[in-house]
Amino acid sequence: KDRDTAFIIRKAEEKGISVKRMPRSEIDLLASGKTHGGVLCTASERIYDKLEDCFQDKNPFLAILEGIEDPFNFAYALRTLYAAGCSGVLLNGRNWTQQDNLIAKSSAGASEYIRLIDCENMEKTLLDCKQKGCQVYCAMRKDAVEMYDVDYTGPFVLAIGGEKRGLSKLVLNQSNQNIMIPYANDFKNALNASSAVAAV
Questions:
Q1: pLDDT at site 95
Q2: Following CA atoms 192, 193, 198, 199 in sequence, which dihedral angle do they give, to the nearest 10 degrees?
């Protein structure tokens, strides 16, 4: 009977989605985990967006998340990117659909709002982005400038890799400029991807 649940029910009814009320004990049996908040939804498999959709935005800001192994890390990065106004996330090879429930929850729903583009050929995708005026900024310390020293006012792609493998050569080869997060001390370890996304 809380306001949030009433909002969800109202939105579902507006869109012609049937709502079935059932005892919490039944919901507990159907849900994965106990922190479902009393609301479950049956949905079809994810439909990925198209790159062209991202360029409908006035000033496209795209992101690449590559080499991230932990679904929580991935979800937190999506949450931050969506909050920052990211037009879309370019995904390369990793199929997260088996973790959709966890990612939707950990991203606070951002994974369902942000555009996700499944790129079969990341090199071609980046070349297409460059043809549309994007600068490609890779979070990589080699040959890097501080993240404050690049221009984010035009269309750009921000590429951030997981802390173990980082970014692939294929992506790094398309970089217009590598950027780094300046630390306040001589700490040498990389931040995890979601922390790096948040910092940039």
A1: 62
A2: 60
Q: Give the least confident one: 95-99, 126-130, 196-200.
A: 95-99
CB-CB contact of 57 with 27 (8 Å): no
Mean pLDDT, residues 27-51: 85
Give me the phi and psi of 146, to 5 degrees please.
-65, 145
Structure tokens at 138: 């890779």
CB 81: neighbour CB atoms within 10 A? Answer: 25
User: How far is the C-alpha of 132 from the C-alpha of 60, rounded, in Å?
Assistant: 10
Rounded to whole angstroms, the Cα distance separating 200 from 197 reads: 5
Radius of gyration of the chain (CA): 19
Confidence of residue 37 (pLDDT cuts 50, 70, 90): confident
Q: How far apart are the first and last CA of the chain?
A: 40
Tokens of 7: 């909002």
pLDDT of 69 strictly over 90:
no
| Strand pairing class (156-161; 88-91) | unpaired
User: What's the full length of the chain, in residues?
Assistant: 200
Nearest Cα residue to 81 out of 128, 123, 113: 113
User: Coil, strand, or helix at residue 17?
Assistant: coil
Q: Quick one: which H or E segment has residue 158?
A: strand 156-161
Nearest-angstrom CA–CA distance, 117 and 53: 10
